[in-house]
Amino acid sequence: MPDVMLDIPESVVPDEVQRRQVADLFRGMRSDGVRVFVPGRIELIGQHVDYAGGSSLTVATRRGLAAVAGPIQEPLVRVRSALGTVEIPLNRNAHGSGWEKYAITVVRRVVRNVPGPVGGAEVVIRGNLPPAAGMSSSSALVTALFLAWGHAAGWIRSLPLSADKRTLAEYLSAVENGRPYQDLPGEPGVGTLGGSQDHTAVLCSESGQIKRYRYLRPALEGQWAWPSGTVPVVLDSGVQAEKSGDRLEDYNRASRLSAVLFDNARRSFPDLPALGFLTPEQCRELAGKVNGVLLQRLRAFEWEMAAVEDASASLDRGDTAGFAAAINVSQEGAERLLGNQIPQTVQLARAARQAGALCAKSFGAGFGGAVWALVAEEDTAAFADRVRQQCAAGVFVEAPGPGAFMLDGREVWPA
Fold it and tell me: For residue 360, what is the enclosing H or E element?
């Protein structure tokens, strides 16, 4: 297939470094197919709250996945990546593990939810996100495959959803976790019991902006320019935060405990839509009725939501130091209460602060993954060198980027 030099408009990707990185990903891939870029995300604060109706602050990353797709006559979806090739038939079940399971989950759900026949496609995916580092590579994969295949085969126009990216994010979350969505029946997902934070971030982010969303149904609660004179730097612990086996159960435990807490809360507050809507008075009442791991989970949730409020208030004031302090408080809560930290991420956050970061926090599901640090722009290179000397981890200088986009200028959603 022909290859062309890419000219990504500055209006789509204002950051020159990201334009180069995206162009490098697509270079050498076919230029006559549907071309979609889906970023990763950094969860700045608001860990393990989305599935309980809490709020979090997120940005999209420079790094992400490039997907190129074209229709094929065969009744299957062929997905090629650096990890291998998988062919997923449209007319019968397929089985796989690892990244293949995510691709199979998307295909199986689309076949069930789209009225009428769906066509096959070949999708090539290439990325520069570190795997299982907490930057939402799995949700980016789900989103990239859905968008590239859907636009290439044309069925995306038939999916009965409203023309709102937040609705699509909520639907893709249901695809990943296997739950029904509105009138669309569910199919077995990948096994995680997460919410829609990651899908919302990779679809709805804007360049240079921090966004605060409340979940379960994503609602934008606040938006701020990234703090002037600073950059986010991602430090990969080198311990992959795999959502499989024992780690999957670790990840899901916090979600299950939140569900039990919600059941307890509804006995006293039957109109409560989610834990995230508890008032301080209701939290105190609920705390008097639970103990053990349930009480600790409630305390962790309260702690994190209070830190989110402090971070948001600081951004409202333009107070970078206050914002950083709230992030550090959130990290303290993750270490003391949430139970999703490992020695490597705890040490990495401390090393980042000792190396001059204004704040440092692990993010994502936990049990491995990465830490993000807020660093003075003029100190970025020296900071990266200092951290590399202390931690055997990848260091990625980031910038808040846009949500998913198509290279031909069309909207990813609605189609």
Answer: strand 359-363
3-state secondary structure of 322: helix
The domain limits of the chain are 16-217+401-406, 227-397
Structure tokens belonging to residue 283? 């939290």
- Cα–Cα–Cα angle for 202, 175, 143, rounded to 5 degrees: 30
Q: What's the CATH code, domain 227-397?
A: 3.30.70.890
C-alpha distances (whole Å) from 258 to each of 123, 197, 222, 300 are 37, 16, 25, 10
pLDDT beyond 80 at 250:
no
For 382, phi then psi, to 5°, come to: -65, -40
pTM above 0.90, yes or no: yes
Give me the amino acid identity at 272. Answer: L
Q: Check if CATH label 3.30.230.10 holds for domain 16-217+401-406.
A: yes
Residue 331, both tokens: 């990290």
Q: Which residues contact 238 (CB under 8 A, 6 or more apart)?
A: 344, 392, 393, 394
Q: What is the pLDDT of residues 45-85, one digit of tens each?
A: 999 999 999 999 999 999 999 999 999 999 999 999 999 99
The two tokens of residue 85 are: 């090739």
d(CA 331, CA 373): 11
End-to-end Cα, the chain, rounded Å = 25
Judged by phi (left if over 0) then psi (alpha if -120 to 50, else beta), residue 399 lies in: beta
Q: Which pairing describes strands 76-81 and 120-127: parallel, antiparallel, or unpaired?
A: parallel
Burial per residue of 208-235, b for 16 or more beta-carbon CB atoms within 10 angstroms, e otherwise: eebbbbbbbebeeebebebbeebbbbbb
In sequence order, the 6+-apart residues with CB closer than 8 A to the CB of 214 are 53, 54, 55, 221, 276
